Amino acid sequence: MARERHVYPTDEISHIWMHQSKADARNPQGNLFFEGKTIYSYRTSYPLAEHVENAKGEKAILLRAGPAFSVTTAGHLSLVRHAIPSSAIVFEVPNVRATYQWAEPGIDHATNLDYFVEQSKEALAKAQKSRKYGLDTLSKAFDYEDQALKYAAFFEIPTGAWGRFSFLPQGEELDALQAKLREREERAEAVDKVRRAKQEAKWAEESRIRALKAEEQIELWKQGNPHAHVPWGSPTMLRVKGDEVETSKGARVPVEHARRILRLVRIAVAKGQDIIPTSQLESTIGYYKVDRIESSGTLHAGCHVIAYDEIERIAPALESLQEVA
């Protein structure tokens, strides 16, 4: 006689539980399993869902609400959710069943009804503050009331003159709130439309510049175009922006420091000999250290190798800034 199978792939466990075709089953890791009507993640103190039946014999599923305690459990809950057919009656509640030895058998209906009330209050508060999705969030606040009433009716829980959702606006108050939220959403959409137009224009400009030849890119970068990039492998370029000199590699140094190094570069060229700065003042430019200056005027500073012609190209701008100062 063949042994009864109890271990199945993780993706299959929730479907077997849903159809109740076996009394129990688990995945190979043992962290998703069901026993009878209840399916668990990791341990029996953390039920994910349970098949329930009311006094009339009607069937429903209680699905655990709220954040999962781990990514794996969140995945388990997602598997369970997707295994439930759309035709099923489902209540998402914090208490799926009593799971502790000291608890009375059955479901804590009071906790579950409190949950619907609190979630409705939170949704209403968010709707009143919402900039963009207020109407949808307001609708959720009323959905929680609807779920609470259906839950109470399913389990035949007497509510009497139940006024626990009296905080929800009605009549003219509701109309006024909906009008306010609608106006707020229209205003937000207008702002977003302008923002999108600006972003799309920026993307179009970036795309246009990317399509340019390397020489054109470099020229635009020198002119200070924020969308231009010096192509990879190009010689190090310089440009003056405000009171700083910026390199095409992204380094920035004060104009004052750049002028000081410019004098050293010109001395090296005039004397026809390399200069290796020794003093702190001569060897420092911004946060960087000048390693050496060749007799040709080429500057070496870490990963930066800057040709003499490029240095002299921005010299007039440096000198004009000095005159202004």
What does this molecule look like?
This protein has 325 residues and is of the alpha+beta class. It folds into 3 domains: 10-93, no CATH class; 109-190; 229-324, no CATH class. It has 9 helices and 14 strands. The protein has helices spanning 10-19, 71-83, 109-129, 134-154, 171-210, 214-222, 255-271, 280-283, 308-324; strands at 24-26, 32-35, 38-41, 47-53, 59-64, 90-93, 238-241, 244-247, 252-254, 284-285, 288-289, 292-293, 299-301, 304-306. A 6-stranded mixed sheet has the order 1-2-3-4-5-6. The chain has a 3-stranded antiparallel sheet with strand order 7-8-9. A 3-stranded antiparallel sheet has the order 12-13-14. A hairpin with a 5-residue loop joins strand 1 and strand 2 (32-35). The model has no long low-confidence stretch (mean pLDDT 88).
Range of strand content:
15-25%
Number of helices: 9
Mean pLDDT: 88
Q: So what's the overall shape? A: elongated
- Order the strands across the largest sheet as they lie in space: 1-2-3-4-5-6
Unreliably modeled segments: none
Radius of gyration: 35 Å
Q: What structural class do the secondary elements suggest?
A: alpha+beta
Helix fraction, binned, reads: 40-55%
When the domains are counted, the total is: 3
Overall number of strands: 14
H/E element string?
HEEEEEHEHHHHEEEHHEEEEEH
Amino- and carboxy-terminal Cα gap: 98 Å
Sheet of most strands:
6 strands, mixed
What key attributes describe this structure?
325 residues, alpha+beta, 3 domains, 6-stranded mixed sheet, 3-stranded antiparallel sheet, 9 helices, 14 strands, 47% helix, 16% strand, elongated
